TrEMBL record:
<dbReference type="GO" id="GO:0008168">
    <property type="term" value="F:methyltransferase activity"/>
</dbReference>
<dbReference type="InterPro" id="IPR016874">
    <property type="entry name" value="TcmP-like"/>
</dbReference>
<protein>
    <submittedName>
        <fullName>Methyltransferase</fullName>
    </submittedName>
</protein>
<keyword id="KW-0489">Methyltransferase</keyword>
<dbReference type="GO" id="GO:0032259">
    <property type="term" value="P:methylation"/>
</dbReference>
<dbReference type="InterPro" id="IPR029063">
    <property type="entry name" value="SAM-dependent_MTases_sf"/>
</dbReference>
<dbReference type="Pfam" id="PF04072">
    <property type="entry name" value="LCM"/>
</dbReference>
<keyword id="KW-0808">Transferase</keyword>
<dbReference type="InterPro" id="IPR007213">
    <property type="entry name" value="Ppm1/Ppm2/Tcmp"/>
</dbReference>
Length: 276
């Protein structure tokens, strides 16, 4: 039997990648799952960890991943030689999902995360010639020097910005827009009420786990308003969350956005277009 890898090497915000892996892999294992993600299942089964401290798995992170995949495919369909930059990629397996969908024919993929996370990826995921691994913080702008971007660049910040201070998050967006004209960036946001609970240490997934603080929050309308707030961002789009099963299908109904308090109180996916 292959020896399992110890997931306790990750802590703090880095350990949240095991939370998202728990949700995504659990969903991928279901016959009616909202995502097909064989490599997530492999990772999940290869890492020894107390996943149950994250509570009962749900569809949220799998649906988020599907939303990012869809937007990435659309950008690459229009820019087939573009580069993809996955900031704070964690244990995401987006490259292999998109490769299976034949969306990455000429794409170079930059995987960026802190050294302990990158070490886990190297132990558990296959080496790919088109994947450039950079073991560093997404806030260390030296990754930008590695990316050409002349044929387009799609930057993903999946599950990242909410863990940053507001100034750090907005500065990162601003620097990406300035450095990669004509590119695009996608990120997800949490609502303010959710952020407040995490900062106060009140968001407990179980009696053994409290989420780290998430100080950066944006409503869908705040996120769309970045197009007029940050130089170089020419357009910002609120991307609908893919519908799931049961309650997740109901919550994806656009009718809820007609009620202001509900629109402001939901999580969101945002796609930014950078000016040429």
């Amino acid at each position: 039997m292959t020896e399992l890898i110890d997931g306790d090497v990750l802590d703090g915000v880095s350990a949240t990648t095991l939370w998202t892996l728990h949700n995504r892999a659990s969903e991928a294992k279901r016959s009616d799952g909202v995502i097909r993600d064989p490599w997530a299942v492999t990772l999940f089964d290869s890492i020894r960890y107390d996943y149950r401290k994250f509570g009962k798995p749900n569809q949220s992170h799998a649906l988020r991943a599907v939303g990012f995949d869809t937007a990435t495919r659309r950008y690459l369909a229009a820019h087939p030689q573009a580069e993809v930059v996955a900031l704070a990629e964690g244990l995401q397996t987006s490259f292999w999902r998109l490769e299976r969908a034949d969306a990455l024919r000429e794409v170079t993929w930059y995987s960026i995360d802190l050294p302990p996370v990158m070490e886990l990826r190297r132990k558990l995921l296959p080496r790919e010639d088109r994947v450039v691994e950079l073991a560093q913080s997404a806030l260390d702008r030296s990754w930008m020097d590695q990316v050409d971007g002349s044929e387009g660049v799609f930057i993903t910040a999946e599950g990242l910005l909410m863990y940053l201070d507001p100034d750090e998050a907005l500065d990162l967006i601003r620097d990406c827009a300035a450095r990669f004209p004509g590119g695009a960036m996608m990120f997800d946001s949490i609502p303010r009420w959710f952020s407040v609970r995490t900062v106060q240490g009140k968001l407990k997934l179980s009696d053994r786990y409290t989420t780290p603080p998430m100080p950066f929050a944006l409503s869908p309308d705040d996120a769309v308003a970045l197009a007029g707030r940050i130089p170089g961002v020419r357009a910002a789009h609120d991307i609908p969350m893919p519908p799931g099963r049961g309650m997740y299908k109901l919550l994806a109904n656009p009718m809820w956005d007609a009620v202001g308090v509900l629109r402001r109180g939901r999580p969101s996916l945002t796609l930014l277009e950078f000016a040429p």
